[in-house]
Design a protein that fits this description.
The protein is an alpha/beta fold. The protein has two domains: 397 residues, TIM Barrel (Alpha-Beta Barrel); 85 residues, Golgi alpha-mannosidase II (Immunoglobulin-like), CATH 2.60.40.1180. The chain is built from 15 helices and 21 strands. The strands form five sheets. Strands 11-10-9-5-4-3-13-12 form an eight-stranded parallel beta sheet, covered by helices on one side. Strands 14-15-16-21-18 form a five-stranded antiparallel beta sheet. Strand 1 and strand 2 form a beta hairpin. Helix 5 packs parallel to helix 6 and helix 10 packs parallel to helix 14. The longest helix is centred in the middle third of the chain and has 16 residues. It is globular.
Length: 562
């Protein structure tokens, strides 16, 4: 039996909510460096998030996911953690975090934070001690290996950020593993003391009142202890787009990540979160080898993660066919698990550019918000999606992202999706800060500011609010099953089914009117989804759908028997 309340150090006792709240939730991701600056250093902070919670609440989302704010040298902008249980001074203090938790909970918002435990910063005390000698108490807390006889690294593993995944340490006269930057050494999860230490870090934040974690690179925790070489990519597997410029893409990563030992650790992590009935976990799975099977294993109901997302809808392919294939593959493979879906985040170009291209964001962006929040699973929206922000063009001389600097110009890095939120088009620095921001803010974003869109009832901002408010009253969209329907481009259509009720969802991803015939539907009536005007009529044993450009239709349907 669940306790009647849990104790939040910031707010005191509060009622326990439905432990499955996350299934029907919409999560809003906040990149704190770029949300709102209250102390005038050009970098967003925790107090800035608190100051803008009214905006977040007004969207109709259920939870916020906050990207890392831990102490860090910022080589990878917070994903290189030097202390798992504190706040970096550029973001504020633990007291600021407590105030943020309290303010969010007062508004009914859950708070999920990034848990980055596959690696640390090389300035973390754990690594400083580990590299000091081969026989100290933490000597085996990171992945160390002797060189080959010729002095080269122990195997062919590559870093995602370029070059070998091994860096030489002259003190130990050994190599250490880093899947990302050389300043991000990988923890050795084969050592149970390491597992205990990161679980203690998670417990620290759960005790502080967080409602869960987004687990960064969750399939990177374990490595092959035999350090076997990765084979080349299987013949015939395509390498597309910017992936061709990164040698990491040419290996089949069967030994450096996604190891079977990870499942047992995730069960330990789940046991910890289950002792906090309100807590949930969403994992980021960067698996290029059976991603849907990996998601199924990682989200097995009641045992491991509550949900997980991959990069399958974070690609450049915006066709209805690609979305249909991806969702069908996930549904076919996920078993008892639960997916999460995102079409934008802090690692990929914004969807209004990546998928929208030259389409007007005013029409395209609200359509995509509706689409991703209508799929079976828990959607994550990235800050600025509610404004229809496009990818910013960041000149090389202003680039901050080490990933982009390494692979410029074929890959321009992640800064274009990380530029600051435009709050006020009439204010200096778009109201984000009193000084120049850490990344330049493009004029196009100024024109799409929150203040300007507040004044326009037809703006993406207001359309997002109206749709998410409407979604809350549609039980089929919250927890129903999904059946994908075969339709011609550019229409994506599916049914959400709950307790015998079927809700048809159809989206025209193109810029011309679309007409679709769906056989077997003999009765239907449109639900009045705000700002969408798709039409449905019955023609004998079929339904005819008419969708204007970037339009959608939601309709209660009945289908004839086979």
């Amino acid at each position: 039996m669940l306790p009647l309340s849990v104790t939040d150090p910031a707010t005191g006792p509060r009622p326990v909510t439905d432990p499955d709240w996350w299934r029907s939730a919409v999560i809003y991701q906040i990149y704190p460096r770029s949300f709102y600056d209250t102390d005038g250093n050009g970098i967003g902070d925790l107090a800035g998030i608190t100051a803008k919670l009214d905006h977040v609440e007004s969207l109709g989302v259920d939870a916020i996911w906050i990207s890392p704010f831990y102490p860090s040298p910022m080589d990878d902008f917070g994903y290189d953690v030097s202390n798992f249980t504190d706040v970096d001074p550029i973001f504020g203090t633990l007291e600021d975090f407590d105030r943020l938790i309290a303010a969010a909970h007062d508004r009914g918002l859950k708070v999920i934070i990034d848990l980055v435990i596959s690696h640390t910063s090389d300035r973390h005390p754990w690594f400083q001690q580990s590299r000091a000698s081969r026989d100290n108490a933490r000597a085996d807390w990171f992945v160390w290996a002797d060189p080959r006889a010729d002095g080269t690294p122990p195997n062919n593993w590559l870093s995602i950020f370029g070059g070998s995944a091994w860096a030489w340490d002259s003190r130990r006269r050994q190599y250490y593993l880093h899947n990302f930057l050389a300043s991000q050494p990988d923890l050795n999860f084969h050592n149970v003391e390491v597992q205990d230490a990161v679980l203690d870090a998670a417990r620290f934040w759960l005790e502080r009142g967080v409602d869960g974690f987004r687990l960064d690179t969750v399939n990177f925790y374990f490595h092959d202890p035999k350090l076997r070489d990765n084979p080349p990519l299987p013949p015939g597997k395509p390498i597309s787009g910017v992936e061709r410029s990164n040698p990491y893409s040419y290996q089949d990563h069967i030994h450096d990540k996604t190891q079977p030992e990870n499942l047992a650790f995730l069960e330990r992590l789940r046991a910890l979160t289950d002792s906090y009935p309100h807590a949930t976990m969403v994992g980021e799975i960067g698996s290029d080898h059976d991603p849907f099977g990996t998601t199924a294993a990682y989200t097995q109901a009641g045992k491991r993660l509550h949900m997980a997302y991959g990069f399958d809808l974070l690609t450049t392919d915006s066709s209805a066919a690609h979305i249909r294939r991806t969702v069908r593959a996930m549904e076919a493979g996920i078993g008892s698990g639960w997916p999460s879906w995102a079409v934008s985040n802090h690692d990929v170009p914004r969807v209004a550019t990546r998928w929208g291209g030259t389409h007007p964001p005013e029409a395209f962006a609200p359509l995509i918000v509706a689409l991703v929040t209508s799929l079976r699973g828990t959607p994550c929206l990235y800050q600025g999606e509610e404004l229809g922000l496009k990818e910013a063009e960041v000149a090389f001389e202003h680039l901050q992202d080490p990933y982009g600097k390494e692979f410029w110009p074929e890959f321009r890095g992640r800064d274009g999706c990380r530029t600051p939120m435009p709050w006020d088009d009439e204010a200096p620095h778009t109201g984000f800060s009193q000084v120049s921001a850490w990344l330049p803010i493009p004029d196009d974003h100024r024109a799409r500011s929150v203040k300007r869109q507040e004044a326009d009832p037809a703006s993406p901002l207001h359309r997002t609010r109206r749709f998410l408010a409407w979604r809350r009253g549609q039980p089929e969209l919250l927890t129903g099953d999904i059946t994908l329907l075969d339709t011609d481009e550019p229409v994506l259509a599916f049914l959400r089914v709950l307790e015998g009720r079927e809700l048809l969802c159809a989206f025209n991803l193109g810029d011309t009117e679309a007409c679709v015939r769906l056989d077997g539907i003999t009765q239907a009536h449109a639900r009045d989804a705000p700002d969408f005007s798709g039409d449905i009529e019955i023609d004998g044993e079929a339904a005819l759908l008419r969708l204007a450009p970037f339009d959608a239709l939601y309709a209660q349907v009945c289908r004839s028997a086979d």
